Amino acid sequence: MKKLNLSLLFVLFSFTAFGQNTLKLGTNKSPKATLADVAWISGHWRGEAFGGITEEIWSPPLGDSMMGSFKLVSEGKTTFYEICQIVEEQGSLSFRLKHFNSNLTGWEEKNEREEFPLVKVEKDAAYFDGFTIKRISENEIHMYVVISDEGKPEEVEFKYFRFNNK
User: Fold this and answer.
1) Which pLDDT score is estimated for 9?
2) How much is the CA Rg of the chain, to the nearest whole Å?
């Protein structure tokens, strides 16, 4: 019984939670995973956040990565973009992104990017360090990201629905 309790405590402290839906990797090593584990993310998705319409488009796995883009439109104008990738390397996955203003000037320095190593993967969820993607159904995904506003971390939810523009 003591061994089980110690194991549970280790698991709880190993995956420190940022918020209700996001995890932190801490000093742990990313688990083994391949792009096949997250291929369900591919598609054209739309939702609402930050007072506007959000759009994510993800390609199916090809080579060692999946390519994604994000756009926020408020009051009929594009506010900003993100170029994203989920890359397979060293037997695991990492989520990377760069931000751009509406005129494509970058937020990060030329050779910098945001990076979220994999913490845990499940059949319908991928937990990256501070960034989670969950499949709710074939036509709905939710993304959760920890954003620091004035030094205070806050988990933000994005609800997306499969977009069919036919």
Assistant:
1) 31
2) 17
Phi, psi of 30 (to 5 degrees): -60, 140
List pLDDT tens digits, range 53-85.
Answer: 999 999 999 999 999 999 999 999 999 999 999
d(CA 126, CA 128): 6
Is the predicted pLDDT of residue 11 greater than 50, yes or no?
no
How far apart CA 50 and CA 93 sit, in angstroms, is 28
Q: Per residue, what are the HEC states of 143-166? A: EEEEEEECCEEEEEEEEEEECCCC
> Per DSSP, what are the bridge partners of residue 157?
144
8 A C-beta contact, residue 102 and residue 77: yes
Q: What pTM, to 2 d.p., does this model score?
A: 0.83
* Cβ atoms within 10 Å, residue 3: 7
SS3 content of the chain, % helix, strand, coil (to 5): 10, 55, 30
What's the one-letter identity of residue 117?
Answer: P
Distance CA 61, CA 34 (A): 10
* 107 vs 50: CA distance, rounded Å: 18
- pLDDT over 70 percentage in the chain: 87
Q: Which domains does the chain show, CATH number per domain?
A: 13-162 (2.40.128)
